[in-house]
Structure formats: structure tokens, C-alpha cells
Amino acid sequence: MLTDRKKQILNATVSLYIHTAEPVGSKSLLDYCPLDVSSATVRQELNELEADGFLTHVHTSSGRIPTDSGYRLYVDELMASSPLSVQEHELISERLDSMSLHLETALTQVSSLMSSLIDYTTIVMVPTIYQDALKLVHMVLVDINRVLVILLHALGVNHEFILTLDDRVAQEDLTKLSQLLTSKLEGLNIQNIPQEFFAELISDLPDYRSVLDQLSAEIIKLNSHHQSNQGLLLSGTSKMLKLPEFRNIEFTQQVLSAVEENKVLLELLQRALVQSNTNQSCFIGKSDHQVELLDGCSVILKPVSIGESYSTVIGVLGPTRMSYSAVTSKLTVVSDMVSDYLSQNISKGGSNGSSY
User: Fold this and answer.
1) 134 and 119 share a domain?
2) According to the model, what pLDDT value does residue 343 have?
3) Do both 203 and 315 map to the same domain?
4) Whole-number pLDDT of residue 102
5) pLDDT recorded at residue 132
6) Mean pLDDT (the chain, rounded)
7) Which residues pair with 152 in a beta bridge?
8) Residue 355 near residue 161 (C-beta atoms within 8 A)
9) Is residue 39 one of the residues assigned to a domain?
10) CA distances to 218, 285, 294 from 291, in Å
11) Measured distance CA(181)–CA(169) in Å, rounded
12) What is the CATH number of the domain that holds 325?
């Protein structure tokens, strides 16, 4: 249990190091944050904070820098909020007012917006539709043996594909079958349709075997396509590389490898989505995010809801010497405003037809 004075000194040490990127000594600490104690007392407290694992030093005679544990305590308990400026609020509102109704384009604009507010890499996960709940299955006869299938999701996005049948089918039968499928599948995502669903339906409705067999095969293909093509949108990496940490070529190459290897970041963002009971996730250092290539980096993630459920994640990647207060404030404001925008516009009126 740290005393209030130790917390005050740790808070000031982390804040000063984030600001200067220089190890913090007792003199610079007292100049930055006047404390009603002597320099000797500050040195003693710094020694004890180091012994407790919250600070460390590069050289014997150098000042202290925070450890991952020090950053964690700072983020969880010590850091002050960093409200956005009037100009930043105006920029966010202006960008939202001109945002596209096409989902992926809108998320690209969100990534660019966050990048304009910070000096780190912004990551946005493009949500996979197979994870979103179905709202409607609609089949339309477009030729004597060709059927257009429309899968409408709660998100407002629809997928369309053509079935070519060996047998003729009437539109009246397709309408009844569409209504039956909608009643049974509404609220499920296509990934969670039970494997036996179509087999049981064909057993009950053998006259529709040709339609149902092909529909089942197309949904399997759709699932496979989206699972292998889930993507990330990244912005601001060039700005981040100007930070002092990236003068180390080995560290820079390591981080760039992680950025280029989408799978690494994607797994991290998916982890944040799974933790739907958390409003925001801050992974500080390798011990938190468990990504070897990102040793020396932190990632802050914020789920973004579209409609009633979390559908994507906005993240910020930077060195552990990240301006956590500013990033969390901006990330929270942007993600909350984007959630409202996506829920009110895309999920209600901005449906996007797509095929694969």
C-alpha cells in the first residue's frame, strides 16, 4: 500500500517522463512539481518506489523511468483527466457531420480522425458481418431457375447472391420459405446457425431440397470468406515513428513487423471485443497484451457499438511512454460520438448491398 506522498511522487515522475522522454531525477522532479519535502526525501521515496517495482533506471547515476507496473498504477489510479480543447471538439463534430453512410468508408474516416488528434498509430477493426445478427432472409425469383437471396443483418448491411437451381420454383413458394427462414434465423448470426439446421429443414420440406442445399452451401462459403478477410484500418504510423523511442532501429523494425502482420493486432482487438463487460481496455507492455513483437508498447482499445451490441473496436498503439490521459480522453469522446452516429445512421438507414 503506497502512501499518499509516494503516489504523488510516482504520479509526477510518470507525468514528467511522458512529457520529456528523459529519466527523472529528484531535482527535475522538484522543479516540475514543487513538493513540501527535501531533495533527500524525494530521493529516498524514489529508491523505495524502485524497490517496489514501480520505477527503474537505465544507468546507476541516471534518473528513474516508469516500469509497466508504474504505468499501470498511474493509469488505474493516479492520472488526471485531460479534457479536449474546443478546437478538438469542433474538429470531431465537423468530421462526423461529413461522415459517409457506407460502413467501411465511415470507419476509414474514423481512423483518419483519431490520427489527426494523436501522435500514435490508430487501429480500427472492420466488423465482420458474419458476427452480426440476421434480421431478414428474402428470396426473389429472377429467372426460371435463378433465385436472388438477400440476407439483411441488424446492422443494416445486406449480402446478396444468386442460386442456380436444377428445378423450377414459384415465387409464392420462395416467399413462404423466406418467411419460414426469417422466423427461425432472426436474431442469430450466420456463424451460429446450427450445422443440423438445414438438414432438419430439408427432412421436413423435401420439395425444397434444391434451394435449401444451395443456400446452406452459400452460407458456409460466406462464413469462410469473412473469417479469412477480416481487416484492420491503420493510420498515423509515420507520425509515431518520429517519437524518441523509435531512434532504436531494432525496436522500430519489431513494431513495424507487428503493424504489418495484421493477425497479431487483430487477435488483440478481438480479445477486447470478447471482454464486452469492459468499457475500455488498456494493455500496458508485453505482460498485458502478450504480444512479443510489441514489447515496449501499449495498446488502448475502446469497443464501438452499432445498434445494441459492440460491433467493432477503435484502438491506439504507441510506446509505453504514451500520453495515456490524452489518448483515453480523445478515444472515449470519439468512440462515443461514433457509436451514436453509426447507431443512428448506418444501422437505420445506411444499408450497404454487397456480394462476395
Assistant:
1) no
2) 75
3) no
4) 72
5) 60
6) 85
7) 136, 158
8) yes
9) yes
10) 36, 9, 5
11) 16
12) 3.30.450.40
Q: Which of 199, 228, 257 is the last residue before a domain boundary?
A: 228
Print the domain residue range for 36: 4-78
Are 337 and 257 contained in the same domain?
yes
Total count of domains within the chain:
3
Question: How many angstroms separate the CA atoms of 92 and 66, rounded?
Answer: 32
Per-residue pLDDT tens for 195-221?
Answer: 789 999 999 999 889 899 999 888 888
pTM greater than 0.90? no
Q: Is 354 a domain residue?
A: no
Three-state secondary structure of the chain: CCCHHHHHHHHHHHHHHHHHCCCECHHHHHHHCCCCCCHHHHHHHHHHHHHCCCEEECCCCCCEEECHHHHHHHHHHHCCCCCCCHHHHHHHHHHHHCCCCCHHHHHHHHHHHHHHHCCCEEEEECCCHHHCEEEEEEEEEEECCEEEEEEEECCCCEEEEEEECCCCCCHHHHHHHHHHHHHHHCCCEHHHCCCCHHHHHHHHCHHHHHHHHHHHHHHHHHHHHHHHCCCEEEECHHHHCCCHHHHCHHHHHHHHHHHHCHHHHHHHHHHHHHCCCCCCEEEEHHHHHCCHHHCCEEEEEEEEEECCEEEEEEEEEEECCCCHHHHHHHHHHHHHHHHHHHHHHHHHHCCCEECC
104-157 tens-digit pLDDT: 788 889 999 999 999 999 998 876 544 566 778 899 998 888 899 988 876 555
Region 2-9 average pLDDT: 94
Residues contacting residue 25 through CB under 8 Å, at least 6 positions apart = 62, 63, 64
User: Can you give the CATH number for the domain in which 149 is found?
Assistant: 3.30.390.60
Are residue 197 and residue 244 in the same domain, yes or no? no
208 and 164: one domain? yes
Structural domain contains residue 356: no
Residue 18 lies in a domain: yes
Residue 40 sits in the same domain as residue 178: no
Q: Quick one: 188 and 238 in the same domain?
A: no
Could you report the per-residue pLDDT of 319-342, keeping only the tens digit for each?
Answer: 999 999 999 999 999 988 888 887
Q: At which residue does the C-alpha cell 474538429 appear?
A: 91
Same domain, 213 and 174: yes
